Amino acid sequence: MAKKQAAKAQTEKAAAEPQVFAVVRTCGKQYRVSPGTKISIDTQDVKPGETITFSDVLMAGKTGGSDVKVLAGTEKSLGVTVTGRLVRQTKDKKLIIFKKRLKGGYTKKQGHRQAKSEVVIESVSL
Q1: End-to-end distance of the chain based on CA atoms, in angstroms?
Q2: 40-69 average pLDDT score
Q3: Could you give the CA distance from residue 15 to residue 105 in angstroms, rounded to a whole number?
Q4: Which of 21, 41, 56, 87 could be a cystine partner for 34, CB 3.0 to 4.6 Å?
């Protein structure tokens, strides 16, 4: 019983604390990240274990608590840095590309696996 109450108190405390988030743009896509989140992006020329700094931050802020703060604008006006650590290089699910022309006897089957990098966000500094 005491463990349940302690766990409930921790979740309420975590919900009350403001949580930092940011929206970063990399490889032509946008991701909403906060410390501890894992994202899968297109491959980066970084070895596993090294850090990645995302310089193109579109929006950042704090949620929860009484003060909600949101910064939005260009990279120079924000002054926000997002750093992450590369966990591993993988490949995405296989996609099958199948082309066929009716009454022509033409078929073509092709597969594709996109190379991905898994990144864990370590910090978002406002």
Answers
A1: 39
A2: 83
A3: 62
A4: 21
Q: Which amino acid is at 70?
A: V
DSSP state for residue 24 in the 8-state scheme:
E
Say if CB 35 and CB 27 are below 8 A apart.
no
Q: Give dist(CA 34, CA 18) in Å, integer.
A: 11
* 21-38 pLDDT per residue, tens: 888 999 899 999 999 999
Phi, psi of 98 (to 5 degrees): -125, 125
Neighbours of 73 (CB within 10 A): 12
Report the distance separating Cα 26 and Cα 23, nearest Å. 10
